[in-house]
Amino acid sequence: MKMLSSYQSGLGSFFLEIGEMGKFTGRYFRELFSMPFEFREFLKQCYQMGNKSLLLVSVTGFILGLVFTLQSRPTLMEFGAVSWMPSMISISIVREIGPVIIALICAGRIGSSIGAELGSMRVTEQIDAMEVSGTNPFKFLVVTRILAATCMLPLLVIVGDFVALIGSAIIENIKGDVSFTLYFNQVFAALEFTDLLPATVKTFFFGFAIGLVGCFKGYNSKKGTAGVGKASNSAVVFTSMLLFVLDFIAVFITDIFYN
């Protein structure tokens, strides 16, 4: 009975948090379309999330291209299909692997940073002080960060995909003596608009999820300084789960419309 009661309590807490996040999302859209807009803070957050994540995303993409090509090449050689390597790598990275892996990396880099920053401001009563002084902390802190994450993640994914293809091209040049010109000619011949559009559109939703969960966890942080670490950790875990759900929905919808 105690186990059942604990399970019901945990399930109830989960649905309660989902409801609170729904209210949080509704408030975000109300504040987003109301004036004034904190444009300077938005640009600052774009720099913090975009420029300072660029090196991490580039290194991740480069290693992804190297490893994926090295792992795939022996299998394709068994079937005499090495010539399909550029097409397979490019479609796999652009459609699925690149957006998901880079979104997960950004969830750890951006989501945890937002959760810790807003959590620290909450427990040190800086947010309460902003409310007392007449500033709208939700618009200044939350709206700008969610919008910046939504705008920056697609750009980071594009950079990561490109660097991953460069890494793959280097392996093909070394292992298969394939020139960079030939490799990228085959890549661009294989990619179609139906590969690029859904993959790009879903990255906006990935960025929105990262910003939303990070802000929600940090803005509602409790229990003193221990709550800051919990907010940061739960933001990454919850965002990672949400990204896989969003990716499944995106793939399912894409399959309906394009197949």
TrEMBL record:
One annotated Gene Ontology cellular component of this protein: ATP-binding cassette (ABC) transporter complex
An example Gene Ontology molecular-function term: phospholipid transporter activity
Protein keywords: Membrane, Transmembrane, Transmembrane helix
Transmembrane regions listed in the UniProt entry: 54-72, 84-107, 146-171, 196-216, 236-258
Highest taxon listed in the record's lineage: Bacteria
Keyword Transmembrane helix attached: yes
Pfam families on file: MlaE (PF02405)
N-terminal signal peptide: none
Presence of keyword Transmembrane: yes
UniProt family annotation: Belongs to the MlaE permease family.
Protein name: Phospholipid/cholesterol/gamma-HCH transport system permease protein
